[in-house]
Amino acid sequence: MSVYLNGSYVPRESATVSVLDRGFVFGDGIYEVWRVVRGGLFEHERHVRRLVEGAEALRLTRPAELSRRALETMAARLLADAGLQAGEATFYVQVTRGVAPRTHHFPPEGTPPTVFAMVNPFSPPEALRVSGATAVTVPDVRWHRCNVKTIQLLPNAMAKQQAQERGALEAVLVRDGVVTEGSHTNVMAVVGGTIRTHPANELILAGVTRAVVLELAAELGIAVEERPVTLDELWGVDELFLTGTTTDVMPLVRVDDRVIGGGTSGPVSRALIAALHARMDATPVSKIE
Amino acid sequence: MSVYLNGSYVPRESATVSVLDRGFVFGDGIYEVWRVVRGGLFEHERHVRRLVEGAEALRLTRPAELSRRALETMAARLLADAGLQAGEATFYVQVTRGVAPRTHHFPPEGTPPTVFAMVNPFSPPEALRVSGATAVTVPDVRWHRCNVKTIQLLPNAMAKQQAQERGALEAVLVRDGVVTEGSHTNVMAVVGGTIRTHPANELILAGVTRAVVLELAAELGIAVEERPVTLDELWGVDELFLTGTTTDVMPLVRVDDRVIGGGTSGPVSRALIAALHARMDATPVSKIE
């Protein structure tokens, strides 16, 4: 399977970057993950915008690859090469500040950013969506720029590992007594018929699926309040679910071994799952020739 | 010039890691920087200990390279190759969780960590030490595991860049109204004859030079209080200085364009500079055959 690296398509095994790439020594970069639906990039515009905004936030030199069209072309080539034009897949793009002698301050102007992209096959966890998943709470120790989708992901990785070791799907991060988000998902609760979720500030990564789900909720006439759920409130919510690019809408029925809601997926979660899948099926996904 | 990479000594230009190295995609790794004095590793024991503790904190598989002896051998070979046995240099070692398909949770057991090491020539900034340096204050937005020397360094890089653009040597990080540390240094103040510095908790990286300087202060009969300086206090301190592996002791004479102390290096700073350099000269540095 090929990957894209700095203008070339190369076998994944031989795709390498310098040990002096600032991605490797500083975690100095951003990334994005798209859901590929029938060969198209779902919510392409939103993902491109977030990638561009991330580059601006980090003051990365914006590479030519960060255009809607260039990314479509790149994804099409990678998907064709992998034989993934028809099924489910993900498209991953990472941009770092490039290769330079190791100094904390930025490298000289003109240092080209590193651009890496790959596709991977993907199987949506539909069975788990029916039964509902479990989560564990983990202290949110991340920095205060979680709104930028950077590769500063060590705390996320550590939290996800904790969840996995405790037999759970996801870690629900808790900072100052409130639920912020998951290790790679957003978290939403249903309280008295209203969807509650952490506001899109610097303490969470405002997911593309989060935005889509809030749109779908509005269409379905479900009230939304962007106000965090406290840890105290968590145990009494009617429904709890995750949203994410590879997670879609995933009901959580147990957290820290305590039953949430009725211990099964609730009506709001189910309605949103159906609405999201309908949008995925119906949306004219970004066309790739 | 050669670098060390996973058991081999290779030219720096051809030293590469997989795009799937967890250092590159997650910033999932640790590093260490030694001061090389006349071919020896200054405060070698402390640096090795911190590296080993970092590996434990991140639950990295500890590679064979993380022994005192193996690191000495590695440094000796790199220094000889670079012709740096006699002069000033730095020795850099980085360990990541290795190469694996990209998932937040840890890769399968047995995945070998990536080990990268290099040496670089170094010129201590002696002229600046005489005149004193300047700094700017920058909000400390980092995560809450600053006590582990990880490659999650994007906020440090952004802060250092801000300092450089404002004509300053270093960024003094401020969180909740108190000075934590610099972007790659610790910060100490002299207030009424007592050295004040942030306690070694999860909000700072407890520098090796910080520890050495606090020892030297005790030897010199200077009182030390590990209590942070508030931003309000900062403007009225008698002396302010940075400590670090490549910084040694560096007086700060202006912060945010405001004069600190008398605008020149103070007696405590000067005494500590002399004591640190004496220790560097006198210490039986780690012997490398």
How would you portray this structure in words?
2 copies of one chain form a homodimer. With 289 residues, the first copy, chain A, is of the alpha+beta class. Helix content of chain A is 29%, strand content 29%. The first copy, chain A, has 8 helices and 16 strands. In chain A, the strands form 2 sheets. In chain A, strands 8, 9, 10, 11, 12, 13, 14, 15 and 16 form a 9-stranded mixed beta sheet that branches. In chain A, a hairpin with a 2-residue loop joins strand 15 (248-255) and strand 16 (258-259). The longest helix of chain A is centred in the last third of the chain and has 16 residues, at 267-282. The two termini of chain A are 20 Å apart. The mean pLDDT of chain A is 96.
Helix content of chain A: 25-40%
Give the beta-strand count of chain A.
16
Strand percentage of chain A lies at 25-35%
Mean pLDDT of chain A: 96
Q: Structural class given helices, strands, pairing of chain A?
A: alpha+beta
**Overall geometric form of chain A:** globular
Number of helices in the DSSP assignment of chain A: 8
The low-confidence parts of chain A are: none
Largest interface: A-B, 53 and 53 residues
The main pleated sheet of chain A reads as: 9 strands, mixed
Give the distance, in angstroms, between the N- and C-terminal Cα atoms of chain A: 20 Å
Q: Gyration radius of chain A, to the nearest Å? A: 19 Å
**Multimerization state:** homodimer
Q: Which series of helices and strands of chain A comes N to C? A: EEEHEEHHEEHEHEEEEHEHEEEH
